[in-house]
Write a structure and sequence with these properties.
Layout lengths: L66 H6 L5 H13 L6 H27 L1 H38 L3 H5 L5 H12 L9 E12 L2 E11 L4 E7 L7 E2 L1 H5 L6 H7 L5 E10 L13 E7 L7 E6 L3 H12 L5 E8 L9 E9 L13
Parallel strand pairs: 7-9
Antiparallel strand pairs: 1-2, 2-3, 3-4, 5-6, 5-8, 6-7, 8-9
Length: 367
């Protein structure tokens, strides 16, 4: 339904106006009636306070402006508005031709630079193509070489665990001239078992002393057993297995050595070494000796090793411990029991041969 328009008329109000309707005034509780107040434009209105009952007895309401408020606001003059619009549109505006010139120069420079680059591309396409081809070729060659190396590592590992004689093993191990006598000594008391690798569990490069010529391979064999191989790839075409770490070679069983402590000879053992404080008998002076507790793999029987305090040997041992955050370190040491020593379970450490159970380089002499 269309809304009925209400016609608004403006009339002049003067003293001769017809009688007004009675005015009903609001008063507070118990207050005398007040005189009515007329509100007009000519005289400022006198403010009167409206007293009402307590606020809690009423609902608050958001103030909404009524139609009277809109009527009282002075309406804009349409003629004045049109005059302003005409004045604003008639004002002269200067065109910033300098900006157009700057943009033009930038575009021209971009075009010239593009043409120059095209020219360079036309002059040197062969060199760029050659470099790209070389990079792709090098990358492809590296992938091929890596794939071939992994294949050779896999092959030597399978042949190693399947070898049934010392002579065949000697063809597949590091430093065969030094290691062959050790293998004969070891397999004189340990049967040489052959295995078949059923699954590879781990294969990754290993960096030792900034030397990246080693890989470690962990494989599953029959009956869910495992073999752990350290493989030297310093010659990528002929990877070789480190046999000594494979069997954790010792010159004699550690428990036998700890029980007998044969005097007068030197022996190279792979041991766990950590500091200790047992000073007695010939090694009772802590200002002269450093004491270390030595244990071996699969044995908790300790032997106490002593090194001259403050000497080069004790400094090398301390450095090896610091590299392992002060914890026990797996090292190869040369020990001896001097003739006439009365201290039980005690040996003298003659040399630190390696900071791990692997010889990166061959030792000066065999055990």
């Amino acid at each position: 339904m269309a809304r009925e328009e209400r016609k608004i008329e403006l009339r002049t109000v003067d003293d001769a106006a017809p009688p007004r309707k009675p005015v009903i005034r609001l008063g507070g509780d118990g207050l005398p009636p007040e005189k009515p107040v007329r509100v007009g434009r000519a005289q400022p209105a006198e403010a009167h306070r409206l007293d009402v009952k307590a606020r809690g007895n009423f609902e608050n309401r958001t103030h909404q402006p009524g139609i009277e408020t809109l009527i009282e606001n002075e309406a804009p003059d349409p003629d004045a508005l049109e005059t302003d619009w005409g004045r604003a549109s008639g004002q002269e505006k200067h065109v910033p031709w300098g900006w157009f010139a700057l943009v033009g120069l930038i575009l021209a420079g971009a075009v010239i630079w593009s043409l120059a680059r095209v020219g360079e591309a036309e002059i040197l396409p062969g060199g760029a193509r050659d470099l790209n081809r070389q990079a792709i070729s090098d990358e492809g060659d590296e992938e091929i070489q890596a794939s071939r190396l992994i294949g050779r590592i896999d092959k030597v590992a399978r042949e190693f665990v399947q070898a049934s004689t010392v002579e065949r093993l000697a063809e597949l191990v590091r430093q065969p001239e030094r290691v062959r006598p050790l293998m004969k000594n070891y397999y004189a008391t340990h049967p040489l078992k052959t295995h078949t690798i059923s699954r590879d569990a781990l294969l990754q490069p290993l960096t030792l002393d900034h030397n990246a010529d080693f890989w470690i391979k962990l494989a599953t064999i029959e009956d869910n057993g495992t073999v752990n191989l350290l493989i030297d790839v310093s010659d990528p075409k002929h990877p070789l297995v480190d046999w000594e770490t494979y069997v954790c070679y010792q010159p004699m069983p550690w428990d036998d050595f700890a029980q007998k402590l044969p005097q007068g000879g030197s022996h190279d053992f792979r041991v766990f070494l950590k500091p200790d404080h047992l000073f007695a008998y010939e090694f009772a002076d802590p200002d002269r000796w450093e004491c270390y507790r030595l244990t071996a793999l699969d044995s908790e029987r300790p032997v106490f090793g002593y090194a001259k305090k403050g000497g080069p040997l004790s400094e090398r041992i301390q450095a090896a411990l610091e590299e392992n955050n002060g914890e026990k370190s797996a090292v190869i040491v040369r020990v001896t029991v001097p003739p006439g020593v009365e201290s039980p379970n005690s040996v003298v450490i003659e040399e630190l041969l390696s900071k791990r159970w692997l010889y990166i380089d061959p030792p000066d002499s065999g055990s």
